[in-house]
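Database export, one record per block. Field names are fixed; values are copied verbatim from the stored entry.
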Amino acid sequence: MKYSFSITFLALLLLINCNSTSSAKQDKTLTPNQSEPDGTYLVTKLYGEDVSEHKLTIVFDSEKKTISGFSGCNTYSCGYTIEKENISFGLPMYSKMYCAKTDQLEKDFFKALSETQLKNTNKSLLKLSNNTTEAIVAKKEQ
């Protein structure tokens, strides 16, 4: 009897927690002048420096809440969360090639992603920044 009561109680708790998670997701809306990024963006600036020649990319999949792309030497992917103008990225998984010429660029790119807190987007431009610095500027690929 105690065993079946415990299972019923745990199932009820699980059901309540699942329901509260879905309602919390619905509260995470974008401000009217912001759009959720989707598609491919070409990184043009990294901490103010022009890096367009390296063809860094960020590909947003808004359904799966993941990004992927090219980081200068390796390909990468990670999850992200958005709440209004705030965005945060998870730890990236990436291939492990070593490229001497772009090693520092890649480290700076991943540092910029990890420090990102704020986003500003429109249909053609994405700006990611921490509290004080515009870390990444990227143009939407046409």
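Remark 1: The CA atoms of residues 105 and 113 lie 12 Å apart.
Remark 2: DSSP finds two helices and ten strands in the chain.
End of record.
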